[in-house]
């Protein structure tokens, strides 16, 4: 994994931690978006899932945005578009957070 890719991954993880530093189940926070970030070391894969209206176990109609990004350039997962995909995910994540904060400040 290149330094640029690692930096983008850490930025995504930091945003998720800053925004969802506490429980965000709908029962606790209403419609605050919930961000899931999972790194799979065995495939060098980043899975980012954003529940834009909050997370609840029983809500199967929730709006979700999901990006799965393969990070390793040296295996069969070699992808030249990794940085573009990470930037797209960051842009989406920042937009969801900004939309929520704007809604909360009204």
Structure description:
This protein has a 3-stranded antiparallel beta sheet, covered by helices on one side. It has 3 helices and 3 strands. It is of the alpha+beta class and 106 residues long. It has helices at residues 3-19, 26-29, 82-104; strands at 34-40, 45-51, 64-70. It is 42% helix and 20% strand. The longest helix has 23 residues, at 82-104.
Given the C-alpha coordinates, what overall shape results? globular
Write down how many β-strands occur, each being a DSSP E stretch of 2 or more residues. 3
Arithmetic mean pLDDT: 79
The largest beta-sheet arranges its strands as 1-2-3
Q: Tell me the β content.
A: 15-25%
What's the SSE pattern?
A: HHEEEH
**Would you identify the regions where 5 or more consecutive residues have pLDDT less than 50?**
none
| Rg calc | 15 Å
* Helical fraction: 40-55%
Distance between the termini: 42 Å
How many alpha or pi helices?
3
Largest sheet: 3 strands, antiparallel
Broad structural category: alpha+beta
């Amino acid at each position: 994994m290149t330094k640029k890719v690692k930096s983008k991954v850490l930025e995504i993880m930091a945003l998720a931690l800053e925004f969802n530093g506490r429980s965000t189940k709908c029962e606790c926070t209403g419609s605050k978006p919930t961000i899931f970030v999972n790194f799979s070391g065995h495939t060098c894969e980043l899975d980012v899932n954003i529940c834009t209206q909050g997370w609840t176990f029983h809500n199967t109609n929730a709006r979700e945005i999901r990006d799965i990004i393969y990070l390793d350039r040296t295996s069969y997962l070699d992808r030249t578009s990794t940085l573009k995909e990470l930037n797209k995910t960051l842009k989406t994540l920042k937009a969801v957070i900004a939309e929520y904060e704007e809604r909360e400040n009204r």
